[in-house]
Design brief:
Length: about 230
């Protein structure tokens, strides 16, 4: 059980670091708490390589990697495997779990490769239901989102939507990356992490992010003119 707790703790930290891989320091994924550094994935990898050179101890390496997020304040002396970067992020995680166990069930898997340090985590609806019952007291309605808003098939009759997906965002694999009809736009942003295109402009924004924002504005202007 302890090994599983450690693995989940490290995986969670890595997921947040990847989502928050912005080109400038940000408190977005720490809910206004400690500041994540610019490109935290690079920072985490550098911390891990430094620890490899110093000790080569696997657990110390994982601690430093995960600490890029969970100790972004630099003030944590001892980690609790059930905690995240701060109390606000813990609460945010609980709220997300509630959504994920009710109206936003999103089946996903981790599939390791030959050079992948992550263990495989395959989707199991039965285990998911049991976990939701234990943590949130509900049985998930897996089709709730599709019933309420429609799935990708419903996009054929939708209009006035622009889907932008950043390749640095782990959620990219679940994004809409095609045009189901001419009134829906989409773009892939190579150097964008989670929601970067929706944030306020920053001098350090990659050019492709600025370009996509301009494209979105042009689409919105066209929709308004048509209306």
């Amino acid at each position: 059980k302890l090994v599983s707790l450690i693995a989940n703790w490290v995986y969670s930290a890595f997921a947040f670091i990847a989502m928050g891989d912005y080109p400038y320091p940000s408190t977005y994924l720490t809910n206004g708490g400690c500041m994540l550094p610019a490109f935290p994935v690079d920072v985490a990898c550098h911390a891990g390589l430094t620890r490899v050179a110093e000790t080569g101890e696997p657990l110390a390496i994982l601690r430093d990697l995960a600490g890029t997020f969970d100790n972004c304040s630099g003030e944590v002396a001892c980690f609790k495997l059930s905690d995240s970067a701060n109390n606000e992020t813990n609460i945010d995680g609980e709220l997300w779990n509630q959504l994920a166990c009710t109206e936003m069930v999103m089946p996903s898997e981790l599939r390791g490769g030959a050079n992948d340090m992550f263990p495989e985590l395959l989707w199991n609806q039965t285990d998911y239901n049991l976990n939701c019952m234990a943590t949130c007291g509900v049985v998930p309605r897996s089709e709730a989102a599709a019933e309420k808003w429609g799935d990708q098939r419903a996009l054929k009759s939708a209009s006035n939507i622009f889907f932008a997906n950043g390749l640095l965002d782990p959620w990219y694999t679940g994004g809409v990356t095609f045009t189901p009809n001419p009134s829906i736009g989409w773009a892939i942003i190579p150097k964008a992490a989670h929601h970067l295109d929706l944030m306020f402009s920053n001098p350090l924004d990659p050019p492709e992010v600025t370009a996509v924002r301009q494209t979105i504005l042009e689409h919105v202007a066209t929709w308004i003119k048509q209306a």
